[in-house]
Each structure stands twice: as structure tokens, then as C-alpha cells.
Design goal:
Layout lengths: L27 H10 L8 E3 L6 E2 L7 E6 L5 E9 L1 E11 L2 E9 L8 E6 L4 E11 L5 E5 L1
Parallel strand pairs: 1-3
Antiparallel strand pairs: 2-9, 3-8, 4-7, 4-9, 5-6, 5-8
């Protein structure tokens, strides 16, 4: 718990009737729980994404595919999912080992696929995270960059 409660807002247990002022921040329990749906990446969790090569998702609903992009040239790229699915794509740039948000698209169950058009720079490393929410058939979704 992070937020305080003024006196009178909590009736039971009686110990907290005069208010509650937690230390703030995330508890160890909060941190442990968050890591269950945002697990740390290992090298085995990452697949390289290259222009004009599709990468099949091959994951179940609720799972995530992590794709590393190291552009050969600086230019605008299009990244999209193909197939019948409900996905969200989030692109990060690796800056000194820290992933920084660049852009995202969530097809939100619409009759379309997730799509990004973004300028990427040669010599930089990017991480694309694609989470699959729904697919109407196993192996029916892939990611492609052009």
C-alpha cells in the first residue's frame, strides 16, 4: 500500500480508525507480483527481427515475444503483426542498458493488426515487445518489419 488514509475513512479494523500513513513506495509483495507479468529478460527470451523476414509468434494468449532490432541503415521502418489476432506492440530503445519507451500500438480487438511506422538509427539497438491477447488459431500470427 502506498497511499495514506485520513482518520475516519477506515472503520474496521479499529486499529486504523485514526488514519493510516504507510511508508510509501512498493512493498516487497508488490514487487514480486509485478515481476510475474513483467519478468526480467534473458538472452534466450530474445529473437532478432530483420527487414523482410517474418518471425512467427508461437506463443499462447497472454504471453509476450521479445524481438531485438539492430538496423543496418538509418531510415523509416514499418513494423506490423500479420494474421488474425489481438496484439499490442511496444518499441523501446536500449540506451546504456536501459530500455526507453519510443512508441506503441494496440489493435484493441479492432479489425486490423498492430502497426508502427518509426525512424530507426543505424548503430542503435531497439527492443520490440509484442504481447498476444488473442489468436483464433495456433501459430496464426507473425511479426514483420520492412
Amino acid at each position: 500500500m502506498e497511499y495514506p488514509f485520513e482518520a475516519g475513512l477506515i472503520q474496521e479494523p479499529a486499529t486504523y480508525r485514526n488514519g493510516l500513513t504507510p511508508a510509501g513506495g512498493l512493498s516487497q509483495l508488490d514487487t514480486t507480483y509485478a515481476k510475474t507479468f513483467y519478468p526480467p529478460l534473458t538472452g534466450a527470451d530474445v529473437t532478432d527481427l530483420r527487414p523482410l523476414q517474418s518471425v512467427p509468434m508461437n506463443i499462447a494468449a497472454g504471453e509476450q515475444k521479445n524481438l531485438r532490432i539492430i538496423p543496418d541503415e538509418t531510415r523509416s521502418y514499418e513494423i506490423r503483426t500479420v494474421g488474425t489476432s489481438d496484439t499490442v506492440m511496444v518499441l523501446f530503445e536500449d540506451v546504456a542498458g536501459e530500455l526507453r519507451y519510443r512508441t506503441a500500438d494496440d489493435d484493441s480487438g479492432e479489425d486490423r493488426n498492430a502497426f508502427l511506422r518509426v525512424r530507426l538509427f543505424q548503430g542503435r539497438t531497439y527492443m520490440l515487445r509484442v504481447r498476444l491477447y488473442y489468436s483464433n488459431r495456433a501459430g496464426g500470427t507473425a511479426v514483420i518489419m520492412s
